[in-house]
Amino acid sequence: MLQRTYDKIYSLFEKAGGYMPTRVMIDNKVSTIHIKELLEKGDIEKISHGNYWGSFLKIKKPKDYKFIEASMTNSRAVICGPSACYYHGLLKKEPDTLYVATMRTDRGNMKLGFSVSRHYFSEVGFEDDIKTYIENGVTVRVYDIDRSVVDSIRLRDTMDEKKLDEIIKAYKKSPKRDLKRCYEYADRMRVGRIVRKMIENT
């Protein structure tokens, strides 16, 4: 590979904050041969089908890299449950497994280099209560704090009981909580009784 080609690719990754989809590289006249060469040299890392991290930048990945990489892989996915609770400050330590929600009809790829717990939600209300932010040029979708607590209770069989207690206790102290919204969502999901019981008795 010519040095000027290498420098161009390096600049593309640098300007993007480290992440780059194949389509952007192709649009900038980077060939698949160049991509393969960079992969073999360890200059870039494949994070999922068609998405890469620029290892040659010698910078650390963002703290929320799992959120970013999942969102790059499936832009329709929403960070949910315990992972969303961590984002909202209800857990001190990020769960080892990333919890994501997709619609039942969504069969988009979610194969990543870390553990992902994928949950298929009903299309009814799927797009409600979503907060978005942009990191490294990627739009990340996260459910709001009230819905995330309810979803964590719904998914309680998939997580440690102590972590769920930590979430509920932190939620009860949070100035961002809205119990009315929390219970309304719980009722829509037909778990109102168990959610009220767990919040009131924890």
What would you note in describing this structure?
By secondary structure, this protein is an alpha+beta fold. Helices cover 44% and strands 18% of the residues. It contains nine helices and eight strands. It has helices at residues 3-16, 22-27, 32-41, 65-73, 81-87, 145-154, 161-173, 179-188, 192-201, and strands spanning 19-21, 45-48, 51-53, 78-79, 98-103, 116-121, 130-135, 138-143. The strands form three sheets. A three-stranded antiparallel beta sheet has the order 1-3-2. β2 and β3 (51-53) form a beta hairpin.
SSE blueprint and pairings:
Elements: H1 3-16, E1 19-21, H2 22-27, H3 32-41, E2 45-48, E3 51-53, H4 65-73, E4 78-79, H5 81-87, E5 98-103, E6 116-121, E7 130-135, E8 138-143, H6 145-154, H7 161-173, H8 179-188, H9 192-201
If you average the pLDDT, what whole number results? Answer: 94
Strand content: 15-25%
How many helices in DSSP terms? Answer: 9
The major β-sheet equals:
3 strands, antiparallel
Anisotropy-based shape? elongated
User: Compute the gyration radius: what is it?
Assistant: 20 Å
β-strand number: 8
Low-confidence stretches: none
Distance linking N and C termini:
61 Å
Class per helix and strand makeup = alpha+beta
**H/E topology pattern:** HEHHEEHEHEEEEHHHH
Strand order of the largest sheet: 1-3-2
Helical percent range?
Answer: 40-55%
